[in-house]
Amino acid sequence: MTTLLQAIILGIIQGLTEFIPVSSSAHLIIVPWLFRWNDPALTSLPFDVALHLGTLVSVLWYFRADWGRLIRAGIDSIRERNISNDPNRRLSWLVIIACIPGGIAGVLLEGKIGDWFHTPNQPINSSAMIVMAVIIIVLGLLLFLAERFARHTRNVQQMTLKDALLIGVSQAFAVFPGVSRSGSTITAGLAIGFERESAARFSFLLSAPIIAGAGLKSLAEIYAGISSGSITQNDLTLFPIGVIAATISGYMAIRFLMRYLQSNSTNIFVYYRWILTLVILVVALTRG
Fold first, then answer.
1. Which among 46, 47, 92, 281 is least buried, having the fewest CB atoms inside 10 angstroms?
2. What is the pTM of this model?
3. Helix and strand element counts for the chain (H, E)
């Protein structure tokens, strides 16, 4: 029952922090570390996949109308070999192009960097937590500066190839726990003059292919593990719980953020990052 409750909590945290710019990967390390949760099921590959599939379902469902238009427009552009002046055709290709840097970084670096910060079934190193705290506060500072000095006048329809590439490169840095996929891409979008809601919308559209790609790769690893016997049916017991919890909380987080940014700044998330940094540093230094 304790593991079940912890799984639900982590599923909710994953859904909320995947889309709110505070870093889901960091929180999935920080929360078990703070409360000394040591059950290996909570750091297993199947449970990690379940959480990410949950957030994928939530972002696909919330933006289902957008995805329908973009997929149709992308197919039409390929069939007719023409983007013309169709904004949906342009946006569909900009999303694809912007995903390339993050996809490359994920394939080459995510596993190695993730293992440095937290190896499953091993105690989390306090020095790694201090590094993560620094990353969290630095991204918070960048978001604060982008919020304060950017113009916030452009919308998604005005996005150029250069804009998409810049935002895509910023997403690549999300392989470091504490950066945040949504945090880095929203910060980049604000820095180059996009409205808050437009920056968030493109960020969420951009997240779906990356999450889907990582999920498919991990599902293949799970299948191989089941075939070899290294992953048992017991390892999959938390899978549906993670999917459901992350899906519901992820959908609520997207809905909240899209409405919140229509009339509010991102400063509340900056302040949260700074407070979280202080908590991590105090605990890491006192635990030794």
1. 281
2. 0.92
3. 12, 0
Structural domain total, the chain: 1
The residue whose two tokens read 């006048």 is: 153
What is the spatial distance between Cα 17 and Cα 269, in angstroms, rounded to a whole number? 11
131 token code pair: 């590094």
Whether residue 177 lies inside any domain: the answer is yes
Separation of alpha carbons 88 and 72, rounded Å: 9
Give the range of the structural domain holding residue 220, as residue numbers without chain letter: 18-40+62-231+267-287
The better pLDDT of the pair 37, 45 is held by 37
Nearest alpha-carbon partner for 171 in 137, 123, 139? 139
Residue 31 has what pLDDT?
Answer: 93
**Residue 55: closest CA among 3, 30, 20:** 20
Q: Which two tokens stand for residue 62?
A: 């919330």
**pLDDT tens track for 58-96:** 999 999 999 999 999 999 999 998 887 889 999 999 999
Could you give the 3-state DSSP secondary structure of residue 20?
coil
Q: Count Cβ atoms below 10 Å from residue 241 Cβ, excluding itself.
A: 20
DSSP H or E stretch at residue 243: helix 239-260
Name which of 263, 147, 156 is nearest 199 in CA terms: 156
Does a structural domain hold residue 88? yes
Q: DSSP letters of 151-199?
A: ---B-GGG--HHHHHHHHHHHHGGGSTTT-HHHHHHHHHHHTTB-HHHH
pLDDT in tens, 187-227: 999 999 999 999 999 999 999 999 998 888 888 888 888 88
Task: Give residue 119's pLDDT.
Answer: 64
